[in-house]
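My current task is to audit a protein record that another person submitted. Please read both lines and tell me whether the tokens look consistent with the sequence. Do not assume that whoever made the record got everything right. I have pasted the whole thing underneath without changing anything:

===
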Amino acid sequence: MILPFALLAIFLAAAFGFTAWKSKEIERQFPQHGELTDVGGYRLNALHLPGPSNPALPPVVFIHGASGNLRDQEAAFRQSLEGRAELLFVDRPGHGYSERGGPENDFPDGQAAAISRLMELKGIDRAIIVGHSFGGAIAASFAVFHPEKTAGLLFLAPATHPWPGGVDWYYNVAAAPYLGWWFTRLASLPAGLVLLDGATRSVFSPNRRRDRYVEEGAPALVLRPDNFRNNAIDVANLQDYVTRISPRYTQIRTPTVIITGDSDPIVLEEIHSEGLARDIAGSELVMIHGLGHKPDYVVTDVAIAAIEKIAGMDRDLQALARSAETRLTQSGVQSPSTVGFSIEGN
């Protein structure tokens, strides 16, 4: 009996050691990018880019999706918007280099409150809130609970409404008490490293992944145990949360644009995006044929124009969407991957 226990001990020590070593390697490759700010007993990491003295646009706050961090939205938007507006790219609580805070941050309204406090500390009174994917649920909650700070909303392939089915199995395992702690320290990081390339291609599918996305967006940061577990808890809690909160979206009264594709492998646009367009009076739905889950990267020009329109500029988003469809047709698409970070049930 001694030999099997000895082998198990060696295996566990090796697995724990590999996870700890590789987590540090990931952090060396993608070090903290931004500034930590205490928002009430814990710290959020954010990249704050002050705008010019006479900005063309109001401040813009970017909220990344599941498995992400602030680098994801920064790589998509910074080059186009820096110098035109005050920009705030945030690591959501428990993601990137932000601390998790209390149990309230297991839900979008808690994370929205944390971002609201961060805005106050950065001197931002009101902003256009941009939410991608899971960040869409936080952006919607932000508008419901902090309307005085919401100058407008841009939803990019958002996840905001109840959907049929559940979430991928590993979210529930990683979110589970006790078991999740072991899973994220023994299995999720090595498996994630193997699957990372295919998973990121799947998130972009059927569009081509940006060549340097893995280097610029730093998705590997989510593979660190605490990040992976926090991300899993977020996703595992989302269904019940949006079931409770989505009826309140009708209270939102702010300029709103929703950009989505009809080929999204991660969220169902007919539930989430069309649901938002139905619930938020005066909102504009921009549906793009052939677009997947990453409008922030694939149709960045349409997203920028949407921010400009929310700010009061004259922009024909539907015409820009048709132009984007032509580009997508001409550029071709990749073969859809079978590996992804889906939140939809089958």
Notes: The radius of gyration is 20 Å. The chain has one domain: 34-331. Strands lie at 35-38, 43-49, 60-63, 87-90, 127-132, 150-156, 256-261, 284-288. The first strand starts at residue 35 and ends at 38.
